[in-house]
Amino acid sequence: MEKANKKLNAAIIIIGNEILSGRTQDTNILTISNWLNGLGVKLEEVRVIPDIEKNIIKTVNEIKRNFKYVFTTGGIGPTHDDITSKSISKAFKIKYCYHPEAYRILENYYEKGKFNLGRKKMAKTPKNASLIYNPSSAAPGFFVKNVYCLPGVPSILKSMLGGINNKIIGGKKIISKTLSLRTVESEISIPLGKIQNKFKNLEIGSYPFFKQGKIGVSLVIRSNKNKLIKKCFVDIMKFVKKKKIKIIVNK
Question: What is the pTM of this model?
Fold first, then answer.
């Protein structure tokens, strides 16, 4: 029997040729990541894969073993290339069929005579899957064990996340502090590395940027312990002041 990963981590599988082709820019990663931070679950991996059944099955089977929670986005709509639901059924070796409750929801949502085959397709899930309700456009998502399947449309996905808050068992809320500096990474790499080694239980990210013709670096400290963040920040500020580096943002 497959054992659930005890670590409070998560992965996202973005399914869609439109993302890979560059026609559509993904914003769901940010939405899901921020939501997970509030629940105390760390997003550790994101994969973008095409609408190809064997790719979906292989990726889901690999990732669901290594992460506590897996979220898929895209591919649960009414068209021929929406194959996520069927692929998830095959990944779990579960029958792909009409979900009685999903069927009723959609049948009641559409006007009489307009519940066509494409719309009926959105009522198909792995047998006995649990539904993720959709307050925006009725068509539900679903989850099987630790794999949660959501739509790709950002506004609809966002509206559905609150409905599964009670399904996600997380830890302490992950908080962050950002310090943006007028410097380059090479100037701060050594003292920053020493501080990261000192504070092994938190994460310090270094992100260079270029705005209005000027370069800089944003340092982001992330942890579920506010006291630890404050102590780390004090140490960072010591070398910032010593090197007389200009602070642009401190939040």
Answer: 0.85
